[in-house]
Structures are given as C-alpha cells and as structure tokens.
Amino acid sequence: MVKTLSMLIHAQPVTVWSVLLDSIEDPQRYMPDVDGSSVVERLVGGTAKELKIGWECLVPDGFDYFVFDQGALREIKAQKNGNDYEPGLLRSFEYESEIVRKITVRGTPYIEKYMVSKKYKDIRRKLVDHPVFSGQITIKVAPYSAQNPMSPVDLQFFIVLVPKSAWAKEVVDRENEMVLAIKTELQRIKERAEELERST
C-alpha cells in the first residue's frame, strides 16, 4: 500500500515540530489504540541511503533492476525499450538522531525506528518486526506558503506498507486499521499544536 495523508495545521512550524517529537515520546496521547510504549535506544544521527522503487520511477512504463558485485549493491537502473536510465533512484537522507521505540498496539508488540532530521523537519518512521507489514512512514512539516509566515503548516504522512502475508482479507483489514490510526494521530497532533499556538 502506498498512501499520502496530509492535514493543514494553523500553527508555526516549530510548534508542529515539537508536537511531532512529543508524539514519539508519548504516543498514547496521540494514538488511542496504544497499550504501551517505551524508548529502548537513542543514537546519534548519520546518513541513510534510500531507494526509490517502482511507483516513484521517473521512467514511464520502465522497470527497475539491481546490479550487484560480489554481493554488494553497485547500481540501480530502470530500463525502457532496451535503453538504460538512471532516474536518481539512490537518495541520501541525513538525520541528527535516531530513536528506537518498542510499542504495543491492540496487543501486538513491534519496534519502530525513527530517524529525525530537525534541519529539514523530516522524520522517517520504519516498522521493525511488525507481524503484518514492513515499510516506512515519511513525515514532513511543510509551510503552506513560504512567503507568509502566518500561513498554516501542511503536515504530510507518506505511507509505504509492504504486506508480509498473502492473506488478502487480513492485509486489507490491517491496512485500514493502520490508516485509521494514522488519521487519528494526525488529527490529535493538529489539535495539540493549535492548542499550544493559542496559549502562547
């Protein structure tokens, strides 16, 4: 599943960012189905190499393939009509800190890894050991208008979930549950940020 959710928040980017960080530390405030959570590790940042995959490919009707040399990934390419393209599939993401969180949602424990880039107001939330999905949620804080500092903030969640199971009904039900949980989280982040903005 690939899905984008976004919400306009009438607050300053710094306020929205602080609420996002709070949602990592205290998810019960923002996600009603959380039974418990704890931060198990904090690490300094670094650079992550990321790959664009099929639906982001800049080559229409192309396909991606990987070139390995003695087990190490050397190149990623797309091909169309027998021609190779390199549509910038390798990207780097620089982040200042990494937070590993153990969380239990509706009785299901799993681990999430957060890579936090304060500089770019960007968070990468990766599912680790989730029983149903692998994948990542990219969270971005984007001012709606760069010219107007009082404009609302567009909080964006880019969701990429890859099911581990072939059971279609279970996958669809769990996808719907996760999307609903993220919508609730977005709404509560909005309410909290706007409440903080009004009180200052």
Round the Cα radius of gyration to an integer and report it: 19 Å
Percent of residues in β-strands: over 45%
Shape estimate: globular
- Sheet with the most strands? 7 strands, antiparallel
- Terminal Cα span: 39 Å
Strand order of the largest sheet: 1-10-9-8-7-6-2
- Class inferred from helices and paired strands: alpha+beta
Low-confidence regions: 53-64, 83-88
Helix content: 10-25%
| SSE sequence, one letter per element | EHEEEEEEEEEH
How many H/I helices?
A: 2
Describe it:
Keywords: Coiled coil. This is Coenzyme Q-binding protein COQ10 START domain-containing protein. Residues 172-199 form a coiled coil. There is one protein chain. The chain is globular. It has two helices and ten strands. It is of the alpha+beta class and 200 residues long.
